[in-house]
Every structure is written in structure tokens, then in C-alpha cells.
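Predict the assembly for these three chains.
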Amino acid sequence: MRRDYLNWAIGVVGVALLLVVPNVTDQFQTFMFAQVAAYAVAVVGLNILTGYSGQISLGNGAFMAIGSYTTALLTARAGWPVYLTIPVGGLLAGLVGLLVGIPALRLRGIYLALATFALALSVTPVLNNYDKFTGGHLGVGFKAVTPPFDIPLSNEQWLYFLGWIVFFLLFVPAWLLLRGRTGRAWMAVRDSETAAAANGIGLAYYKTLAFGISALYAGVAGSLLVIDFAYVNPDSYNLNLSLQLLVAMVIGGLANIWGPLFGALLVVWLPYVAEKAVNSKPDLAFGALLIVVVFLAPNGIAGLLRRGLLTLRGRRQEASQTTGALEATPAEADQIAT
Amino acid sequence: MDLLLAGFSFTALIQQIVSGAGAGAVYATLALALVLIYRAMDVANFAQGEMAMFSTYIAYALVGGDFGLVGAKLGFNGVHLGVAGAFWIGSIVAVVASFGLGILIERVLIRPFEGAPLLTLVIVTLGLFSMVNGLAGFNWGYVFKTFCCPFPQSAVNVGGVSFNYTDLGIIGVTMIILAAMALFFRYTKLGLAMRAASLYPESSRLVGVRTSWMLALGWGLSAAVGAVSGILVAPVVFLDPNMMQSVLLFAFAAAVLGGIESPLGAVVGALLIGILLAVVGTYVPGGENLRTPFALLIIVVVLLVRPAGLLGRPETRRV
Amino acid sequence: MIGTRRVAALLAAGSMALLACGSQQANNSPTKTDPGITSNQILLGGIFPASGTASAYYSIPKGMTAYFDYVNKEKGGVNGRQIKFDVLDDAYSPANTPAKARQLAEEDKVFLDFGQLGTPTNLAVRDYWNSQQIPQLFVSTGSDHWGKDYSQYPWTLGWQLNYGSEARMYAAYILQNEPNDKIGILYQNDDYGTDYVNGLKAGLGGKADSMIVGTATYNAGDPTNMSSQVAKLKATGADTFYVVTTPAYAASAVVNAITSGWKPKFYMNAVANPTSVWKQVSTQLGGSSSAMDGMISAVYLKDPLDTTKWGSDAGVQLFKTIMQKYGGDLASPPCDATGADGFCVFGMAVAYTMVDVLKKAGSNLTRKNVMDIAAKGLKETDNPLTLPGITIQTTATDHFPIAQGQLEKWNKDHWEPFGSIISGRGA
């Protein structure tokens, strides 16, 4: 029960912060925080797949591309209202995720990593090649969204709220799912497939389901991101995007429900900080900062914060074993990569 | 000689296979370095290509005396090996230096993460990737250099098919490394200790193997093999800070296709990928712009049939 | 939510009031200005890849900054204002560019976006700059779109010789001198590559189909080894090799073509023609490098490396002095004063035009006025780094600032321009 209070407390503080942010930031910063929402949605999805169900993916950027292109093409070519394209993009990506999940059942560890890596490397050339349909190298632009009903918000503020509303709508079911039967089944599969199967958990069902849901989240994130940009281009969907998601998941906190928030915040803002530090060689600073962050929080920022919070409350004993139902121990996490 | 069937030339096909194998040999050298690290610590090292690139710059600096910005600041640019065979001496020194740097990286950057989740280590290698790439760009800039040549820049023509000496040379050196690795891991005490430390760390410690140093040694060897790779590859892809990035992608695919822990598998995988890319790009209708997706698709299909790679042993889960 | 909206509305009202004050002040001063201009400073922004695979282009802002520093320190700036240039990194990914554009516009509050690099990255924010009515000026990409789409995007303008114009120059030369060539084309499979291929086809007209005997492609980011593509083209029986790739791929293509014994006539797109590249390739090829001689390319900038031709040229001298003094300000390694890095030369040349336009705007330093001068009224004949005879020009109907160039031939270790200045202006 105590854990629940803590989660609720974090939630309330989080929502309060979210409401304050667009009022104290400039349009650029608001825009960055809007992107944080999109990335956070994608990382929640990846965390379900890799953190909880133990299937590593280097290819979730590909599912994002499906959501992105669904939104851009339906809006620009078919004149759809842009908001309606978000669920469609998510569902389409989810469907593809399910289909990818089936052959993926045969692979694990680094072999699964390669299969998903192949997906990530293939997106850009495929999108470029079918240019009659996708717009090819020139990409597809559409009219930028503006706040509906004359709400007195700037475009960037509206994108911000849109992003975070969608995040909330997807975060709650993910939380419920992970706390319930499905979440426990995923973790059982991750920790030991043999034991899970012996306990009557359908491996194929749960593993494929994780792929589908993860892709659905990625698709929605992709939609959100192109709504922010009002433009889509194949070059955005390279391996880097998938690696960014991986970085966000790990430094946020593997198999931690709050991890994606911190991870997304970091992948969006860390390059900015790196550039401020060393303007002309941001990659040097970025690499160093990344290593420093994982050094300070080898089990993720969420894990570190939780540990800090619990220590503050004097519950050192609990703090020393930071794991709870919704977190992976380092040992469990190792199962993911091997 | 030519079997002409509606524009199809048998010689041309052979030429594509030969060219493809030559391109594949480039991936093979780096794939071997990836296998070495994976055997030691179960992690794919994303910085492997950048480390190889940096090693090549070291060799380049020793041979040509261009130590970049650091050299300019400290005033030792222009100091170089002015002797016959400078290319070879410089390269060997760079390979040895890379061995040391590999050990250093393990001690400084990897060691502190002992016990952290393996995915955290993957992130560390991504950070290392950025840093090494940035460092080389900072010091030498991005105007590409030639660091040339271990082998003559020409080809031998056999029945209308041209065999590039550089490709032949790379394949030859790859085979030598492969043989050396086999001998080292099978017949030397150190090699056996390294294998034991990675497979059975607990029991190895009990019999007196210093497992943590074995890991460092793995990084050192891998960096050295990477250095050989960079030096061989430089005349093909030209020396610049981004030279190894696409090589790394296909080297990774090759190593996994081969069975990630099998050096021979990595080489076979690499040659296959090189040939696949060339043949698909040339002969599959519409395949030219999609050579990468097609080749990767075929690889994934192969993996679905052999989920532990071509020459990998079926998984035995360690607890 | 409602509370937030109210706060936001209040803040919006407040900032509007502030804005009103600001514009009042502006009205009182003799100069008409926009954000980014103060009494002693003009703030420009730019987006270039400082990290990632396209980092080589980062020499462009180095060259630009060096020239601005020179103008600031030795010429007293532009009409008493110092030019400041904020450069941000988007790693050449269109997913990063939108945020960077907003950072320049909203956080740094730049006057305009200068020289931004890359076709996909510029496209990603073209709508944004145009909707904000902030000039996206002299973008560093030769895509035909900036000039072609001007009526729809009047706040966006290119500068360099566009790919299509350059391709038509080769076509004209081929038709006139070697009408029986069998051409094999290697091109990067994207907008940049197709601009060059379409330009060549348009230039060859009815003969295009019979003259072009084969094409091969690669995708940006593919491994640099072009042996498979070269083997394919060689097998088509082509005797002329039209190379539309970035430098490393071009080097691989030429090396493979020569070592495999093909030895065709080469046409090298300007994207890959820096002298330093071909000097390196020539060294690598050793004895067989003579097969490169006669390779044809197009040029519109002077090549400081060619000291026999430009050794005493005032413009090139200026370049060398400026790079010596200011070339290292932005980043390391500094811009080489010898001009070994062609992007430094390019950067200074385009910065010269930028300063030229700002000077012409005089005391009317509004975005609108600057854009008008740049896009409709440019006539620059004195750029120190463009070839003599080239005019950087825009009119009410022509929005391609540079559409002229000269052909050049590779000779052992340098390019030799030949023939007269040709205009590639066409369709």
C-alpha cells in the first residue's frame, strides 16, 4: 500500500508540474516539452516490450514511422481531421507490431535485436523508394494544427497539451495493465520462460501481445511527433531514432513505470545541454554526459529517485532493495539482454 | 565465355559475386572484433567501429606526421617515421597501442559498471561512440584523408572478372586473424582462461583466474583486431571520422548471422552479406534502391530457420 | 485546465503589452528594425550539422563566422552594427530541425536564418520560417526547389549553383563535343541525385534515351564501397561515367572504375569536386592516377589551392588573410588558410553576399526589406571568391542567385577551368 501512496504522490506532483510548465517557458521550450510527451509515449511502449516482457527491440522507430506517415498522408492527401489520425496511426502500427511479433517468437536476445535492427535500417530506404505514395525524399507537409475553439493558447502550447493529454490517455491503461494479470504474466515470461510456461502462461500470446501494444504506443508517438512538426521525411526514421528510444528507456529506468518520463525528458533535453556546454562539438559533450548519467544512475533515474525518496524517509532497508512489483532487479534486467 | 541470356552475362554475375565478397571482407574484419567483445561480456559494442577509426588515425599520424590539432598545439606535427616500410611499422605500432587503449577503456569506462544491467553497458558504448567520433572530428576534422595502401591499387583479370588486390589482401588478413583466434582460444593457457572466465566466472575465480582482467584483455584484443580492420578498410572507404559507421552496421549483422560467438560464422556471415547486397542490388528487379532491406530480410529469414545463427550453438541458458 | 488557460491568457496579454512597448520604441528610433537588430548588433542564426555523418559541412559556418569576424573587427561591422552568428546543430536529421528553428526564433530571437544546411532539413522548417515571416536566406543546398517554389515560399531562398543548372552545363558540353558518348550514371537515390539526373536528361533532350546506357544508385548512409555499382555500369559498355555522389562515394567510384580497368571519361558533380579530395585519390592511385586526367566538373568559386592561377588574386589573398586571423574562432580544427577545405571557401563567399545585402538594406533593417533585396534585387559582381564574370543575381522573376559556372578539367593535381562562363539557367 505504501508504494501506492508514493506512486500517487509522484503522479499528483507530476500533473501539477505539467500544468505549470507551459506558463513559465518560451515557445521553444514548450515545443521541446511537447516532444517529450511524444517520446515518453514511445518509451512507455518500448518499456512494455523490453523492460517488462524481456524482448529487446532496436526497431521501435519503424513503428513510429507507421504512425507518422498515417497521420501525414491522411491529413495532407485525404483531408482527414488530424486528431482522428492519431488512433488510426496507433492501431495500424499495433497491427504491424502483432505481425512482427509472431516470427519474433522464434528469436531472443541478440538475434531478436538483429531482426528488429533490420526493421530500423529498412524504413528510410523503403519510404524513399515508394515515393509515389509516401512523397519520397521531399517528405509530406501539412497545415500546422492550431488550438481548437479559439482557446487562447499559442500553437506550441496547444501541441504541448495535446501531447500530454494523449500521454495521460495511454499511460493510465499501461499502468493498469502492468499492475494486473498481464503485467505479471509479462514479467514471469521475462524472468523465466520455462517457469512461466509451467505455470500455464501462454508464452506466444503474451509475447506477441507485448509486441502489438508496444508498436501501438510507438505509432501514436509517431503521430504526435509529426503533428508537432507538421512535416514528415523518411530521413527522420533512421537507426538513431530507435537507439534514442533505447537510451531513454535504460536511463529512465528499465521496467519502471515512471522511467519513460525521465528518459524522454533526458533524450530531448540532453543534446540541448550538450550543445550549450560545447557549442561546436556537441557530440563530445553528449557522449560524456550520457556516460556520467548512467554512471550516477546505473539502474535508471527513476530507480535512483525512488531510492533517494525512500532513504529520505528513513526506510533504508527498503531502499537497499529498491525493487518492487513494477521494477526489474539488475539480475532480472540481465535476462533481457542475454 | 559469356553466356548471354537476354542481356544476362554470366561473367557479370561472377564479377558481382567477387565484388560483393570483397565488400563483405571489409565487414568481416570488424565483425571479428565484435565477436571478441561479445564472447567476453555478452554485449554488442556500438563503439567498435569508432575505436577502429581512431586506431587508423593513430597509424595515419605515425606514418604521415599529421597529429591534427593536438599535434599543432604541442608542436610535433611533421614528426613521422621517415623510414622504408613506415606504413607497416606505423600500423603495427597503432595496433599495439590500440590493444593498450582497449584495456584502458575497459578499466576506466566499463569496470565501474560491473554488476549493472547489460543494457546499461550498451548505453555506455553508445556514449563512447559519440565521444570517440567527436574527438576524432575535433582533432583531425572531416576532410577525408588517404591512408594508403597495404596492397597495390590495381586488379588482376581472370577470364573477364577483375579481382581487386585490396579485396584479396583483406580476405587474406581476415583468414590469418581467424586462424590466430582459433589457435589462441584453443591452445594457449591465456585463451582458455579467457573462455573460462566468460563462460563460468564463479568457478574460474575459484581456480585462480583473474576474471576481471580477462575482460580487460578481451577489450584489448578486440581493439587490436578493430585497428587491423580500420587500417585495411581505410583505402576502400577513405579515412574520415565517419568511415566505420555503415561498416559497423553490416559487421553487426554479419556477426549475429554467423552466430555471434563464432569467429568463423562472423566471416561467413560477412561474405554472404557482401554478396547478397551486390547481387540483390544488381539483379533483383526494383532491388537497387532496396538492397539493404532485401538483404536484411533474407538474413532475418535465415535466422528464423536457424535462431542461433549459421554456426552458433543452440542456446544454452546460463543461470 | 481552466486555471492554466487563464494563466496562459494573462501571460499572453502581458507579453502583448510588452511587445507594444517594444514597437513603440522602434518607431521612435530613426531605423526601422525587427527582432534580432539592436543599435549595435545584428543577430543571425544558422542550423548546421556539428555532429553526425554530415559533420564535414560544419566548415561552412566556420568560414562564415571568420568573414563576419573580419567585417566586425576590421570594417566596423555593417553600418556600425556588429554581426553575431548563432549556430545550432541538427545533426542533419529533419526530426531535430523544427526544435532548432524555434530555438533560434524564440529563444535567441535571431533576425533571420542564414545559410541553413541540407535539403530535407530545410524542407522540415520551410513552413515554419514562412509562417513566422522570418527569412530562410541563402540556404546551403543546391536543390532546384528554393528557386522554383519561390512564389509559394517567398521567405526562402537558395544561393549556390543549383544542381539542375549544373547538370545542363554538362549536357551542353557533351552534345557539342562528344555526341556519341555512352553514359553510365551513378547517383545518390534522393532528391539531390534525381535533380542532377533530370537536369542531364533535360539538357540532352531527345538524345537522352539513346546516350544513357545504364544507371546505378546507392542510398545515403550505405557503405562507401561502390565496387558493385561500378561493375554493373562497366558491364553496360558505357564509356562515360557521370558521378552524382558525395565525396567519399565519388572517390570510391573513381578508384574502382580505374583499378578494375574500366577507365571511362569522368563527369564529376560539383558536390564532390573539392581539390583536396582528388589530390588524395590521386596519391592513393599512384601510377594509374593519370586515368583521372581529363575528368570534367563545374565550378563557380575560385580554388585557393590553385596557386598558379589565383596566387596573386586579391579575393583569394583576402580569404587567406581572413582564415589566418579568424579561421579558428568557431571550432577546431580551424578553417585551413590554404583553402584545402572547400567548404570554408564556400562559407566565406556566401557570407560576403549576406553582408552585401545587409549593407544595401541600410537603415531599413526589416526582415521584409532584407528578403526583398535578396530575392528580387540582387546584383553582385564583386564577390571576392566567385569566378570573374559570374554575377550573383535575382530579379522579380528569377530566384536562382547563382546559375552560372565554368567547366573545369582535372590535370594531375589541380582543376583547370576552360571555356567561357556558361549560364545553366533553363526550364
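The first helix of chain C runs from residue 2 to 28. The two ends of chain C are 54 Å apart (CA to CA).
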